[in-house]
Amino acid sequence: MNNKIEIYDSTLRDGAQMHKISFSVSDRIKIVKKLDEFGIDYIEAGNPGSNPKERLFFNKIEKVNLQHSKIVAFGSTKRADLKVEDDKNLEALVQAKTDIVCIYGKAWDFQVTEILRTTLKENLKMIESSIKFLIKNDKEVFFDAEHFFDGYKENKQYAIEVIKTAINAGATRIILCDTNGGTLSTEIYDIVKNVCKQFKDIKFGIHCHNDMELACANSLIAIDAGVYQVQGTINGYGERCGNANLCSIIPTLEIKKNKKCLKNSDNLAMVTEVARYVDDVANHISNPNNPYVGALAFTHKAGAHINAVNKNTKSFEHINPDIVGNSRKKLISELAGKSAIYEIAEKYLPEISKTDERLVKSLKKIKDLEKSGYQFEDATGSIELIVAEELGIYKRFINIIYTKVIIERENSVAVVKVKIKDRERLSSAEGKGPVDAIDTALRKAIGKLYKSLLNVKLIDYKVRALDSSKGCEARVLVNIQTSNGKTQWNTVGVSTDIVSATTEALIDSIEYAQLHNLL
User: Fold this and answer.
1) How would you label 71-90 residue by residue, b for 16+ Cβ within 10 Å and e otherwise?
2) pTM here?
3) The domain 6-282 belongs to what CATH superfamily?
4) 3-state DSSP assignment of residue 58
């Protein structure tokens, strides 16, 4: 059985079809460089025939020196009513100047007759002539057999004929696509096994969509059945319910199935960084529950679980989070406290005793704050600041004197006065709403001393009333998530005044960055 599995990333094409995802040309280049550093084999970077922005990207990426990854241009077979040499989409693939192109063609007779509105025979001619045209223009061709599994189940003979046509025309990879994401894993295995057995010398790939939450499982079982290449996207980006998530597939293949996916297996420790980097570039809020890379993937809350993990991490973790570049967290909540506090303190003072009075004081302070409405379950940044202060290893450097906000119809203006160490600083700023204005004003006040604060960004903001029965008099809890592109942390603020609660959470986020030398 083959030990090497090719990884084909489609984040910049298939992933870009996700709701609210839009990559600029510079965004695409950044992501390509990060994926190349990670060790991805192929990067499907877009469809040059679709719009001018795509063509501009291909012109620019040609000048970028990549160490490992190969750029792939994506497109379709020719239109039924055109000669192959007159098809502008195929010409755009030629002009993209990539060594490899991937084109898709229909493998489901229903799609051919009802959607393309052409004959089954003509569809085969379209596939054959398109592949031969691209090869004639010095391209290596991968062929996506679109809707293959639906086609196989309804008209097996025709679906197989599509594959034969692509192989005979010269395609070097045949990708079996579960385009509608509606095929069960048992079906995937049986069909792929039969196809690979029938075409023993051909390298097949798998391309799954996640409409039944089976994209990763189907990709993995297709590999068991004999495919050589797996396609997917970072963080499972994609249309509808998304695509197979490479950030789950790659670690599973490397760790659980002993398959070589990356150029260097040591790069597996980058997967969390890559996942969060792409989210950051895409301005997309990371899913904390994502396997392997999510902020909560190795987070424990129940007291019994934390106690067990303290004794042996294998008790509630299937791998060491360090392997994938993630970290273990233990939440402070009504279900647990002392063990989590000790875990935080031990990072700073390895010799500290579990009975140290400073831990008792830390826990008491946290519990007192919880009684007044604070919730620290998703605010480990604020927790660490409290513990670090009680341990005497950190002293806050920002003191807020006042914050004032003027809210206008379109923009808001914030005035902030802070004392940084022994110096007072006054700053004002406009923003798209009060939160943006406060954040910008704080950065102006602090940024002159800490220029690297520019790398720290607010990526999520949540606010909710703690006692809705009091209406407008209710205390509010503000929870924010901040990132420097590699690390993410959450902080919290509580007040009857949303401006004060927001300011508190923002300042905690900056203090946390200073505590961890992120400024």
Assistant:
1) bbbbbbbbbeeeebeebebb
2) 0.79
3) Aldolase class I (3.20.20.70)
4) helix
- Closest by CA position to 512, among listed 461, 453, 464, 462: 453
DSSP state of 294: S
Write down the pLDDT at residue 380. Answer: 83
The residues pairing with 333 across neighbouring beta strands, listed in sequence order, are 336
| Strand, coil or helix: 1 | coil
How many CB atoms within 10 Å of residue 386?
A: 21
**Beta strand 457-465 pairing with 476-483:** antiparallel
The SS3 of residue 436 is: helix
**Which secondary structure element, helix H or strand E, spans residue 75, and what is its range?**
strand 70-76
User: Count of alpha carbons within 13 Å of 172, Cβ hemisphere only?
Assistant: 9
Q: Where are the beta strands (DSSP E) in 181-297?
A: 203-208, 229-232
Helix (H/G/I), strand (E/B), else coil: 409: coil
Strands 203-208 and 229-232: what pairing?
parallel
User: How is residue 385 written in tokens?
Assistant: 């600041």
Q: What is the residue type of 260? A: K
Closest CA to 253 of 281, 224, 280: 224
| pLDDT, position 1 | 53
pLDDT of residue 493: 94
Domain ranges of the chain: 6-282, 299-391, 398-515
The pLDDT tens digits for 372-419 are 888 887 788 998 999 999 999 999 988 999 899 998 877 899 999 999
Q: Which of 294, 328, 276, 237 is nearest to 10 (CA)?
A: 237
Six-digit token string for 114: 């009802």
- The mean predicted confidence, pLDDT, of the chain is 91
**Which CATH fold would you assign to the domain 398-515?**
Double Stranded RNA Binding Domain (3.30.160)
